[in-house]
Design a protein that fits this description.
Helix 6 links the parallel strand 7 and strand 8. 36% of the residues lie in helices and 21% in strands. It is of the alpha/beta class and 385 residues long. Bound molecules: iron/sulfur cluster.
């Protein structure tokens, strides 16, 4: 019955060369107005939302570490005072290594944050990605987090970087493993259209790995993290036992989540909506505006009722990313058996009595497997609610 709360802090001190996430350059005045508003929205949520326990909270971005810790604390105070925050709630916050100081992390921990996700991305290739930190700064940031008592730490890494081969990936992994995080997220670089990095690539300024080389890097990542004691539980996520990200696992398993802040997405019962993307528009539209019921707030940017088809696709989307797969009963027989048999025969899917998931051979081609599964769903006209 509990739900998860996501707070989007879309402000960044500098825009990374590969980034196409919802973010803007940090302007303290707009950030202050946005975060104060989020705290006020929390205090005035509809009754139906206030009655359910909050199982996890996640501050993502953008760069939540570039705003004052007091603004994060004020939102968490509002959550504690106005909602039913579970006593053992996981409360995560994404941090840029450049922002980490002892005073900051102490204030963040005092506010109640008990999990930090630190965006290292690369120890050897941070410059071309437009990251602000040096490798040494990333190491110092982790030392500072540990000195302040952070004992649930994720480090974000990227692979398939410009010019990266197995030796360069090994150097990044050596540096990461030396810091012994409890959790590792590792995503392949995507060249999003319109980004500076994509333009440089199109202009021939650097090469990225082809499919075979990409698969070899991913396999190397799997092997090295497994050898270091990390369990692979989601296509891009590894953890020491007991340190899987509870927030993301709940969302991948289909739990309701409430997203607050510019561009945040909510899935609540049969509804899905997105907050206005631009922070100034978000503040303008949501300030002083009442939220009367459990449906989308009046200021929501986009809102829709999730159809049964949409819910099925989401089950497949998340279920194919989780190493433990998904329960086909959630699709109530709407997935054609022939497709599953075909993908199993190709060695891309495994199936047990109660679960279906991707094999090691299926993981690198997860998108194609997903396309096949979605195409094998029975016709949408049978499932529209
Ligand atoms: S810190 Fe994250 S959100 Fe901000 S510009 Fe870089 S990749 Fe984008």
């Amino acid at each position: 019955m509990g739900f998860s709360l996501y707070v989007h802090v879309p402000f960044c001190e500098r825009i990374c060369t590969y980034c196409d996430f919802p973010r803007v350059l940090h302007d303290p005045r707009t950030a202050d107005a946005t975060l104060s508003l989020i705290a006020r929205v929390v205090r005035a949520l509809p009754d139906g939302m206030r009655e359910r326990p909050v199982a996890t909270v996640f501050f993502g971005g953008g760069t939540p570490s570039c705003v004052p810790a007091a603004a994060i604390a004020a939102i968490l105070d509002a959550v504690r005072q106005s909602l039913r925050l579970s006593p053992d709630a996981e409360i995560s916050l994404e941090a840029n290594p450049e922002d980490v100081t002892l005073d900051w992390i102490r204030a963040i921990r005092d506010a109640g944050v008990n999990r930090i996700s630190c965006g290292v991305q690369s120890f050897t290739c941070a410059g071309p990605l437009g990251r602000r930190h040096t490798p040494q700064r990333a190491v110092e940031a982790v030392a500072t987090l540990r000195a302040a008592g952070v004992d649930n730490l994720n480090l974000d890494l990227m692979f398939a970087l410009p010019g990266q081969g197995p030796a360069e990936l090994d150097r990044d992994l050596d540096a990461l493993l030396a810091l012994s995080p409890e959790h590792v997220s590792c995503y392949g670089l995507t060249l999003a259209p319109g980004t500076p990095l994509a333009r440089d690539h199109a202009a021939g300024r650097f090469a990225t790995p082809d499919d075979d080389a990409w698969n070899a890097l991913y396999a190397r990542l799997q092997d090295r993290l497994a050898a270091a004691g990390y369990g692979h539980y989601e296509i891009s996520n590894w953890a020491r036992p007991g340190y899987e990200c509870r927030h993301n696992l709940r969302i991948w398993e289909g739990a309701d989540y409430l997203g607050l802040g510019p561009a945040a997405v909510t899935r609540w019962k049969r509804w899905r909506w997105t907050e206005p993307v631009d922070p100034e528009e978000y503040v303008r539209r949501a300030s002083g505006c009442a939220w009367p019921g459990e449906g989308p707030p009046p200021w929501a940017g986009q809102a829709e009722v999730v159809t049964a088809t949409g819910a099925d696709i989401e089950t497949l989307l998340t279920g194919t990313r989780l190493l433990r797969g998904f329960d086909p009963a959630r699709l109530a027989g709407r997935l054609e058996e022939a497709c599953i048999c075909d993908l199993r025969a190709k060695g891309l899917l495994w199936q047990t009595d109660g679960r279906i998931g991707l094999t090691r051979a299926g993981l690198p081609v997860a998108d194609s497997v997903l396309d096949c599964l979605v195409a094998a769903l029975r016709g949408p006209e049978e499932r529209l609610e």
